[in-house]
Amino acid sequence: MTETEAKPSESSQNGLAFERPLLEMREKIAELQQLAKTTHLDLGGEIEALQKQLEEQTAAVYKKLTPWEMVKVARHADRPLTGDYISLMLDDFTELYGDRLFRDDRAIVTGLATLRGRRFMLVGHRKGKSVKDRLACNFGCAHPEGYRKALAKMKLAEKMNIPIVTFINTPGAYPGIGAEERGQASAIARNIFEMFSIRVPIIVLVIGEGGSGGALGIGIGDRVAMLQYAYYSVISPEGCAAILWKSGEKAPDAAAALKLTGADLLKNGLVDEVIDEPLGGAHRDEKQMMEAVGDYICRWIDELKERPVEELLEARQEKFRNMGQPPGV
C-alpha cells in the first residue's frame, strides 16, 4: 500500500491521550447521524449542538497543547505525509530514482512536480504508513545515498532552471554502522554546503518532524516554513532526555527546553513563516491543509523567481548567518 492507501492504525483510531474526549464526542455524533439515517427521528438539532460543542472543545484543547503534545501531533499516525501531498496536492509528478553511486533510498523521494502551472523539483522525506512501507522507507530516516540522490536531483533542477521545494519529515538521519561507513555525516555536510550555491529558488517546508542533521540535509533554502503542529529541533526530545537526564521519561521536559515549536522558532528567527493547520491538526482536514501548503508554495515561487540569481544567493547566505536573531534585529 502507498502512503495514501494505508488504513488508519489501531493507535490512530484510539487517538492521542488529549484527543480521546474529542474522539468520544465524534463517535457520539456518528452514532446519532447513523440513527437519523435508519429511523424517522429528527436528530438534526442534537447533532448540530454536539458539532458546535466539539468544535469549541477542540479549539480549547489545541490552544493549550504543550511542546511535547505538539511533538505527538507531528507524529500522528493519520497526519498527511509527503506521499499524500504528492498524490492529493500536485497536478503532476514524475519520480526520479537513485544516487548513481550505490542504490535508491526510499526514505527520500525526488521528482519533477507541477502545481497550478508551476514546475519545480520536489525533494522530501518519505515515511510510509503501512508497516511494510515504513520498513521499506526506514521510518523516514535516510541513508547517505538518500542525501546524495537529493543533491543530484537538486543539481538537475539547477540545470533545468526550475525551483526546488523540499518537504522535511524525519526524526533524523539513519545512524547505523552501514550508513556511517558510507559517509553519512559527509553526505549531509555536502548537501548543506552545496545548497547555499544552487542557483535556483529553494523553498523548505517542515510538515511533521524536523530532526537534527537529517532535516538539515535538505533544509537550506530561501524561505523556510513549518506547519503549526510540526517541530524543528537539533535533536529529538527522547534523544535530548537520554543525554541530559539519562531517562526517556524526561522527554516532555526536553521538548519544552528545546524550543522546537513554530512559535518559538518564528520568535527566534529560525523560520520565516508558520502555516496554520485546520482545527484539530492537519489530519482532521487534509484538503484544507493541501490548499494552504499549495498557496504557500505558489506565493514564494512567484516572488523568488523574480529575484536576480546573485541577489538570491547572497540573501540565502545572509539569512543563515543571521539565524537565531529575532526578525528585525
CATH third-level topology of the largest domain = 2-enoyl-CoA Hydratase, Chain A, domain 1
Q: Count every beta strand, where a strand is a DSSP E run of 2 or more residues.
A: 8
**What's the story with the biggest beta sheet?**
8 strands, mixed
For the record, give the distance between the C-alpha atoms at the N and C termini, rounded to a whole number.
48 Å
CATH architecture of the largest domain: Alpha-Beta Complex
> How many structural domains are formed by the residues?
2
Give helix and strand order, one letter per element, not per position.
HHHHHEEEHHEHHEHEEHHHEHH
Overview of this structure, please?
It is built from 15 helices and 8 strands. It has 329 residues and is an alpha/beta fold. The chain folds into 2 domains: 52 residues; 251 residues, Alpha-Beta Complex (2-enoyl-CoA Hydratase, Chain A, domain 1). Strands 1, 2, 3, 4, 5, 6, 7 and 8 form an 8-stranded mixed beta sheet that branches.
How is this fold's topology laid out?
Layout: H1 10-14, H2 20-38, H3 44-63, H4 67-74, H5 82-88, E1 92-96, E2 108-115, E3 118-125, H6 131-136, H7 144-160, E4 164-170, H8 177-181, H9 184-195, E5 202-211, H10 212-216, E6 223-227, E7 231-233, H11 237-244, H12 251-258, H13 262-267, E8 273-275, H14 286-304, H15 309-321
Parallel strand pairs: 3-4, 4-5, 5-6, 5-7, 6-8
Antiparallel strand pairs: 1-2, 2-3
Helix pairs in contact: 2-3, 4-12, 7-9, 11-12
